[in-house]
């Protein structure tokens, strides 16, 4: 399911706030000549956004329980859905909906909390098949190789110096034993524009710890903000970019955010925050993400694991999970996983067939054992043979097909030029006790006896 939120000029010439239009497309359904769209009043959206910021601050300050948090969030979700969709029927509300949801927005609507939309049961931010993206006029699609990990420490504000050093130390300890990933660290006193370009071009991973403005990363020594230059560069060597700072995923009408600049430059996975994030929470998220990533080598799975931990924690961390976003490509099952599953299925099938074969062989062997006269009295042997004969005849009489029943009875009762009574008994019991319908059993009977 693809959902796009597109900016449109305001229908009122008196307003400088853009309206919006939302449309969705179910890629699994056949093409329809009519596409459903929802025009959205831009002023209503802006008012919701202001109220949302106040709502989060009040909610965190009140320290609610998780259930209280969800109840209040549900009301905000209903409010936003009424503004956007009105009385329209939404496919992702269907109880049978299990597909991926891809939501892409124009720049001026990126910072809205679309994650509070709901499916038939849960919020989008709890739905593991929810993907967020941006709409842009350009993007580097050619992938180049990088292998190093680059850590940038840039506190900017004096009150962040201690926490940024602490975070830098945590990340360094995680990667210090990773011999396959060269580790590079730009400390606050080394942070310059030229240093950034020297180190970024061969890096596969970037972790930024510090302060960011909505427009980009401040570089105090050069008195510049690094933002749009990134979007014009070719950085497709970057596999994972973690911007662990406030507003790092923010984007607005007059502001092209930092996360979107890395996406335009070709970075595959970009993680950041739509709103301010508390220092200790940011440290925890950074540490957990890279720890999970080194184990799984899967950026999206690591992101989802961190989100899950945040949602199971206190209200402050639960609020941070709404702001923490990951821009990533669709995660599909690799061919190697499919091949492995296929081979495993074949092995299991082979084991089942082998076990079944040996069980039948054991049954047949036990049936062929006949007590001798020295073990059982002759009168008992006669009784046993009589019971066996009666058992075979009873089973034959239960055959519904008259032709099959007649031929089976003749085969059992009449003498055979080559087969003894015992051999005929074994053949009939094996066929009549086997699985399958009468047609299959009749076929096996004709094949084993040579009777047409």
What value does the average pLDDT take?
85
Helix content: 40-55%
Q: Enumerate how many helices there are, as a single number.
A: 14
Order of SSEs, N→C? EEEHHEEEHEHEEEHEHEHHHEHHHHH
* Physical arrangement of strands within the biggest beta sheet: 7-6-8-11-12-13
Strand element count: 13
Coarse shape = elongated
The major pleated sheet works out as:
6 strands, mixed
Low-confidence stretches: 369-384
> By helix and strand content, what is the structural category?
alpha/beta
Gap between N and C termini, in Å? 60 Å
Q: What Rg do the Cα atoms give?
A: 35 Å
- Strand proportion: 5-15%
Describe the protein.
With 452 residues, this protein is of the alpha/beta class. It contains 14 helices and 13 strands. The strands form 3 sheets. A 6-stranded mixed beta sheet has the order 7-6-8-11-12-13, sandwiched between helices. Strands 3-2-1-4-5 form a 5-stranded mixed beta sheet, with helices on one face. A two-stranded antiparallel ribbon has the order 9-10. Helix 11 runs antiparallel to helix 12 (402-413) and helix 13 runs antiparallel to helix 14 (438-449). The longest helix is centred in the last third of the chain and has 34 residues, at 335-368. The chain is elongated and about 110 Å long.
Describe, in short, the structure shown.
With 452 residues, the chain is α/β, with parallel strands linked by helices.
């Amino acid at each position: 399911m693809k959902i796009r939120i597109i900016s449109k000029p305001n229908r009122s010439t008196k307003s400088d706030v853009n309206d919006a239009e939302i449309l969705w497309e179910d890629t699994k359904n056949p093409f329809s000549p009519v596409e459903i769209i929802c025009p959205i009043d831009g002023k209503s959206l802006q008012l919701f956004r202001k109220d949302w910021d106040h709502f989060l601050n009040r909610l965190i300050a009140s320290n609610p329980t998780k259930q209280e948090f969800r109840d209040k969030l549900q009301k905000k979700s209903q409010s936003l859905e009424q503004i956007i969709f009105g009385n329209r029927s939404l496919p992702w509300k269907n109880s049978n909906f299990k597909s991926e949801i891809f939501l892409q927005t124009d720049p001026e609507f990126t910072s809205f909390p679309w994650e509070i939309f709901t499916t038939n049961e849960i919020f989008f931010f709890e739905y593991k098949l929810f993907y967020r993206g941006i709409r842009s006029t350009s993007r580097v699609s050619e992938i180049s190789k990088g292998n190093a990990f680059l850590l940038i420490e840039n506190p900017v504000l004096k009150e962040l110096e201690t926490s940024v050093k602490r975070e830098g130390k945590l990340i360094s300890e995680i990667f210090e034993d990773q011999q396959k990933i060269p580790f590079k660290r730009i400390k606050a006193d080394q942070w310059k524009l030229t240093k950034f370009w020297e180190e970024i071009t061969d890096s596969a991973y970037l972790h930024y710890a510090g302060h960011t403005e909505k427009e980009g990363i401040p570089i105090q020594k050069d008195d510049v903000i690094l933002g749009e230059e990134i979007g014009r560069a070719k950085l497709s060597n970057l596999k994972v970019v973690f911007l662990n700072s406030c507003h790092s995923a923010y984007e607005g009408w007059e502001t092209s955010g930092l996360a979107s600049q890395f996406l335009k430059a070709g970075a595959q996975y970009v993680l950041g925050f739509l709103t301010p994030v508390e220092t200790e929470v940011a440290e925890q998220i950074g540490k957990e993400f890279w720890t999970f990533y080194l184990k799984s080598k899967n950026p999206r799975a690591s992101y989802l694991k961190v989100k899950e931990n945040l949602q199971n924690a206190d209200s402050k961390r639960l609020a941070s999970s709404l702001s923490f976003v990951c821009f990533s490509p669709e995660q599909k099952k690799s061919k190697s996983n499919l091949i492995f599953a296929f081979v495993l299925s074949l092995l299991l099938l082979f084991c089942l067939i082998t076990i079944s074969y040996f069980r039948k062989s054991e049954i047949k062997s036990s049936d062929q054992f006949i007590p001798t006269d020295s073990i059982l009295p002759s009168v008992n042997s006669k009784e046993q043979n009589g019971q066996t004969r009666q058992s075979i005849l009873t089973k034959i009489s239960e055959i519904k097909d008259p032709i099959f029943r007649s031929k089976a009875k003749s085969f059992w009762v009449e003498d055979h030029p080559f087969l003894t009574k015992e051999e005929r008994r074994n053949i009939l019991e094996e066929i009549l006790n086997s699985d399958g319908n009468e047609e299959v059993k009749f076929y096996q009977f004709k094949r084993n006896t040579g009777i047409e």
